[in-house]
Amino acid sequence: MNTPVPVGPVPTPESGVEPGRGRVRFVLARLRLMWRSFRNGWGIFMDSRIGMLSLFTIIAFALMAAAHPILMAFVWDPATYDPVTGYSFDQVEQPAPPSWKHPLGTDPLGRDVLSQLLYSTRSEFVLGITAALVTVGIATFVGAVAAYYGRLLDAFFMRLADLIIALPAISLLIVLSALFHLNLFYLALIIGVLGGFGGTAIILKSQALSIKVKPFIEAARVAGGGHFHIIFVHIIPHLLPLALLYMMFTVTSAIFAEAVLSFLGLLDIRMSWGIMIHTANTGGYLLGGTRYWWLIVPAGASITLLCSAFYLAGRALDEVVNPRLRRRND
Amino acid sequence: MESASNTPETPDTRAAGSNASDGEPLVAVHGLTKLFPVDGGPFRKPSSFIHAVDDVSFQLGHGESLGLVGESGCGKTTVGKLLVKLFEPSGGEILFRFTDAPAVSSAEAPWDAAAIRGRLLRSFRRRVQMIFQDPYESMNPRRTIYDIISEPLSVQGMGDVQYRVDRVLEILTLVGLTPAGAFLFRHPHELSGGQRQRVAIARALVIRPSFVVADEPTSMLDVSSRAGVMSLMQNLATEMGVAYLYVTHDLAVARYMCNRIAVMYLGKVVELAETEELLRNPLHPYTKALLSAVPVVDPGRRRLAPDIRGDLATPIDPPSRCRFYERCPAATEHCLNHPHPPMEEKSPGHFVACYEV
Ligand SMILES: Nc1ncnc2c1ncn2[C@@H]1O[C@H](COP(=O)(O)OP(=O)(O)OP(=O)(O)O)[C@@H](O)[C@H]1O
Ligand code: SF4
Ligand SMILES: [Mg+2]
Prior knowledge:
Chain A is 72% helix and 0% strand. Chain A is mainly alpha-helical.
């Protein structure tokens, strides 16, 4: 399609190093480079005590999520321990306080609370991470495109973001869940879309704007790079660290939104931390004060812990991503 | 400064063969103008403009190198960016005649810069490159030296990875970054200012362009390596037949690098001549002032004190009279009441814009 220009010798497989080995070395060198920059970032993250604490908390919850199917398969009898359909017949009274058989007691419907807690952890992770991926995917793309093309496209996306921010998200979700049967996946999608076109897009766009005016963008244009090349090779990689950070914050808001909606009984979900509290509430056990603590504390503490762990891990990542925030200790 | 003059090759030695290979210039610029709005926004019409480049005309032959000198802010970089199509001109035209390029419409028609887009723009990018003024900001800090230098090759889809690696290694060696293999996977921040400028030169030349805008490519180098890089650029010019628009504020550098020199002042080219002619026989008061500010090697020649007053005037909506009027030691009533003087050919090839010459 383009006319050939004399550029050195014609490319041949024989030129330079042996064909195969040269490329392998090339790929290896790149991998080494990525490993090095990962190690640098990891070093900074490790310096943050709160960051490490959050990371351990997240890992602990992940292990809990992984433990549930194993326990169900090898230790717990499904008839008794299934988080939704199980029933503990050997209890005189439901809900029963913690015992050897039920470390966190049973709920008003005679189901094991620990099993519910562990089972829900997985849903929370799936929900949070799906919502975060959707948010960040949309926001990165929208931010880069709005900043790069400017004008009408920019005006459109920014007004859309203003609109979404102006709408109170939780009340919007309440309306939506009243109209449709929201399951976990749709909830994640809606939270992701709201975040992606909303505040996160504005933040990533302002970052993209500061990249767009850098002279290396002009250099890429002179090299012959098209819009696609510049957006994906030169702008988006500079947005990814910030995007990762906002993924963390989105996980927090997704888990929180799920808890609120489940508590109000608006979600079509088998089991979740929010539903556990909802069940206690509809039975009137929340009014009983601390007497039925095992119905509320495990789920409530889990929501608080996991949300703050993701949030604080994000703050620690912020230090890795934003050199300005780094304490100089060298 | 004058370290350049004791190196063997002078522009004259290669001017002979390069200047007019087939009569037609490589680049022809007519009345080029670039205005930047000072105020105004998306919904308000700007009321005043920076006249960064104002009615500039010049020509550049195949393989020739034209120096563009002038003080900071006079519009040198803007001229360069207009030539590589980073800016769209507010007025005037730029025509390119590449010897190896397919004609746009008829066989002899030049490429009109305003009409270059789409596929033609890609072929234009293969022939016209730029070395940026700032070697720190003009490289993506997240990319490796290999990525940076091979970018023109990869975005144009030239050769496979092996081929590009070979070209990059070759050009790294040429610009004096050896052993070349050790630089491939380093990042720009791991290099010194001088090394980065060599990378910037390598990036512009790796695709073997016909024309390069070199925007102060040696400003970060110390005097000793500056001479090396300059002679390197000259060798590459003779070897590859590259033509340069060489932007600098240093007349000694321009003298060493360029066949001809254009002197700019506040968006206007005020004098243009063969290098030796301009240095021996400056006509415009501004050129004279510039030359008197350059140290003179010949002790027998008496140096004139810079005969110039005041600061650089702003290029924001300047009055229509001679741009240099406020600072000109030779200004007269005539200069005050007439528009900016036109370029006139005082002797063959020596143009100057001044009423009092
Ligand atoms: N993108 C831009 N937007 C607005 N004004 C600009 C822009 N680029 C340059 N200018 C203005 O145009 C004028 C000429 O700038 P230019 O960068 O061409 O000067 P220069 O001769 O290269 O100076 P230096 O030697 O300092 O690099 C300056 O007044 C500058 O402020
Ligand atoms: S035209 Fe007049 S003011 Fe302008 S440079 Fe010449 S003498 Fe000076
Ligand atoms: Mg400049």
